[in-house]
C-alpha cells in the first residue's frame, strides 16, 4: 500500500528547487486558493489538522497561532531553521530540495495571521541551503508572489529575510533565537511572557520550525481533516524521520506520524549493519532518553513515545548496535552539551562540564562506583533548574543511559578500563550511502 508523501514527494526531481518546477507540480495553488478565503479559515484548518510542531516540543500549531494578541501590530513570523541537534537532519533537505514549499507555507501563515514580515533563522553552517533559499525568495519576489501584492492578486505586502546564525546550538531555542536575531548574544529569555505575546523587538512573534510550516500548503489545499486522518489521535499528518547510526540504509524517511519505530529501523532503514544485534535507540535527537532494544516496538507518535519513557522530539532516530560502548557514546553527547551551554544558568554551566568529566573518568577506567552515583546526582540537579530546556537536554540522556545500562558503567569501574577497548565506537560506517527521499548521497 502506497503512503502519502507531503514533504518529500518532489525530492530527487530535476531542478526541484526552482519556481518553474514547483509551479509545474501545482505549487502556489494553495496560496491562490487562500486568496479567496477568510484568513481565519486558514487558522481553523490548521487547528483541525492536528499539526504539531516538528521542532521537538510537539505543541499544537493552530493553538499556538491563536495566542497572538488581536490588537498589537506589527507582528512577526520567525521560521526556525537552526537545525543542530545531533542526529537531526531533515529541515535542511526541505530547504535544499523544495524551498518554494517552505515559502508558500510562510506566505499562507503570514496571510492567516496578518503578518507582513517573516524571518528564516538558518544555521550558519548551512551555507548551501541559505543560498538556495535566498535564490528562491528572490524568484518569488521577481514573480510578484512576494512584495506589495501577495501572489500579485491581493494588497498584502509581504517579504521574507534569511538570517544566518553563527552556529550556536542554543540559538535553536526560540527565545535565544530572538535575542540573536536582534543582534545580541543568544541568551534564552525567562518565560512568560512567551514570544507570541512579547517576541521579536518586543512585538508578538510566532516561531515555527521549517517542517511545521512546510506542511501548511498541503493542509490548505486538502483540508485539515484530511491531514488529521493521516495521523492518529491528536497528531496529524506525516513526519520526516532521520535515521542514523548502525543501520544499512541511513537517511530521511517520510512516514505517518504514528509509524512503528521498530519497522522504521528494521525494514525501511534495512536493519542493523553486519547482522549484529541492536543495543539501543535514541528516538528523537540526542537529547531524548534512550530506549533499550526490547523497547522499540512502539508508535513514533509524540504521546506514544512519551508513554514509553522517551521523546519523539525532532524525529532524529539514532541507532546503536552491540559493538558500541554506551559510556563512550554518552561521553560524546555530554561533551556536546557542555560545549554548547550558553553559561547563563549555574546548574547548566557547571553541571554539564562536571558530567563530561565524570564520564571521561568512567570511560578510561579511572572512576569509582561513587563517581557513577555522583553522575546521577549531578544530572538530577541540572534537570528542571535552568531557564531553557538545554539543561534538561543535557541531563535526560545521562539519566536514561544510567537507568537502562548502569551495569555497563559499573563494568568500566570494576575493570579499570573500557571493556570494549578501542573497538567501542562501533563499526566504521563511513562508506555507506544515505537515502534522502528519492536522493542517494
From TrEMBL:
Q: Which reaction does it catalyse?
A: a quinone + NADH + 5 H(+)(in) = a quinol + NAD(+) + 4 H(+)(out)
Concerning Pfam families, the annotation shows: Complex1_51K (PF01512), NADH_4Fe-4S (PF10589), SLBB_2 (PF22461)
Q: Which UniProt keywords apply?
A: 4Fe-4S, Flavoprotein, FMN, Iron, Iron-sulfur, Metal-binding, NAD, Oxidoreductase, Quinone, Translocase
Q: What SMART domains does this protein map onto?
A: NADH_4Fe-4S
UniProt-listed Gene3D superfamilies? 3.10.20.600, 6.10.250.1450, NADH-ubiquinone oxidoreductase 51kDa subunit, NADH-ubiquinone oxidoreductase 51kDa subunit, iron-sulphur binding domain
- What cofactor requirement does the entry state? [4Fe-4S] cluster; FMN
Biological process terms from the Gene Ontology for this record are: cellular respiration
Q: PROSITE patterns of this UniProt entry? A: COMPLEX1_51K_1, COMPLEX1_51K_2
Alphabetically, the GO molecular function entries are: 4 iron, 4 sulfur cluster binding; FMN binding; metal ion binding; NAD binding; NADH dehydrogenase (ubiquinone) activity; NADH dehydrogenase activity; quinone binding
Enzyme Commission (EC) number: 7.1.1.-
Domain NADH-ubiquinone oxidoreductase 51kDa subunit iron-sulphur binding span(s) in chain numbering: 327-372
What job does the chain carry out?
NDH-1 shuttles electrons from NADH, via FMN and iron-sulfur (Fe-S) centers, to quinones in the respiratory chain.
What's the family? Answer: Belongs to the complex I 51 kDa subunit family.
Q: What is this protein's name? A: NADH-quinone oxidoreductase subunit F
**Organism of origin:** Anaeromyxobacter dehalogenans (strain 2CP-C)
Amino acid at each position: 500500500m502506497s503512503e502519502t508523501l507531503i514533504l518529500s514527494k518532489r525530492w530527487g526531481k530535476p531542478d526541484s528547487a526552482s519556481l518553474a518546477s514547483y509551479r509545474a507540480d501545482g505549487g502556489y495553488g494553495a496560496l491562490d486558493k487562500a486568496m479567496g478565503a477568510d484568513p481565519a479559515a486558514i487558522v481553523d484548518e490548521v487547528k483541525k489538522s492536528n499539526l504539531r510542531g516538528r521542532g521537538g516540543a510537539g505543541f499544537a500549531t493552530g493553538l499556538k497561532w491563536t495566542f497572538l494578541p488581536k490588537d498589537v501590530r506589527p507582528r512577526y513570523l520567525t521560521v526556525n531553521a537552526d537545525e543542530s541537534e545531533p542526529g537531526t537532519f531533515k529541515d535542511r533537505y526541505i530547504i535544499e530540495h523544495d524551498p518554494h514549499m517552505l515559502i508558500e507555507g510562510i506566505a499562507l501563515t503570514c496571510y492567516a495571521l496578518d503578518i507582513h514580515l517573516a524571518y528564516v533563522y538558518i544555521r550558519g553552517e548551512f551555507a548551501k541551503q541559505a543560498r538556495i533559499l535566498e535564490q528562491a525568495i528572490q524568484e518569488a519576489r521577481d514573480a510578484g508572489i512576494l512584495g506589495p501584492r501577495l501572489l500579485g492578486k491581493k494588497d498584502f505586502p509581504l517579504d521574507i529575510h534569511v538570517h544566518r546564525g553563527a552556529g550556536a546550538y542554543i540559538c535553536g531555542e526560540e527565545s535565544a533565537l530572538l535575542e540573536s536575531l536582534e543582534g545580541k548574544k543568544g541568551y534564552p529569555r525567562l518565560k512568560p511572557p512567551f514570544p507570541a505575546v512579547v517576541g521579536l523587538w518586543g512585538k508578538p512573534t510566532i516561531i515555527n520550525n521549517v517542517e511545521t510550516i512546510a506542511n501548511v500548503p498541503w493542509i490548505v489545499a486538502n483540508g485539515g481533516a484530511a491531514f488529521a486522518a493521516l495521523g492518529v489521535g491528536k497528531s496529524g499528518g506525516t513526519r520526516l524521520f532521520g535515521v542514523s547510526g548502525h543501520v544499512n540504509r541511513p537517511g530521511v524517511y517520510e512516514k505517518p506520524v504514528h509509524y512503528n519505530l521498530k519497522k522504521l529501523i528494521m525494514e525501511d532503514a534495512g536493519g542493523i549493519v553486519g547482522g549484529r544485534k541492536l543495543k539501543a535507540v535514541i528516538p528523537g535527537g540526542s537529547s531524548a532518553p534512550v530506549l533499550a532494544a526490547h523497547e522499540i516496538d512502539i508508535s513514533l507518535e509524540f504521546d506514544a513515545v512519551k508513554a514509553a519513557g522517551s521523546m519523539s522530539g525532532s524525529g532524529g532516530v539514532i541507532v546503536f548496535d552491540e559493538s558500541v560502548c554506551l559510556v563512550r557514546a554518552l561521553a560524546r553527547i555530554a561533551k556536546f552539551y557542555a560545549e554548547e551551554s550558553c553559561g547563563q544558568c549555574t546548574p547548566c554551566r557547571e553541571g554539564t562540564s562536571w558530567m563530561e568529566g565524570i564520564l571521561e573518568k568512567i570511560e578510561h577506567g579511572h572512576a569509582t562506583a561513587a563517581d557513577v552515583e555522583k553522575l546521577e546526582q549531578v544530572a538530577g540537579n541540572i534537570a528542571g533548574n535552568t531557564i531553557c530546556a538545554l539543561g534538561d537536554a543535557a541531563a535526560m540522556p545521562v539519566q536514561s543511559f544510567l537507568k537502562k545500562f548502569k551495569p555497563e558503567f559499573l563494568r568500566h569501574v570494576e575493570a579499570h578500563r573500557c571493556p570494549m577497548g578501542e573497538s567501542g565506537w562501533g563499526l566504521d560506517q563511513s562508506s555507506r550511502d544515505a537515502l534522502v527521499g528519492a536522493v542517494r548521497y
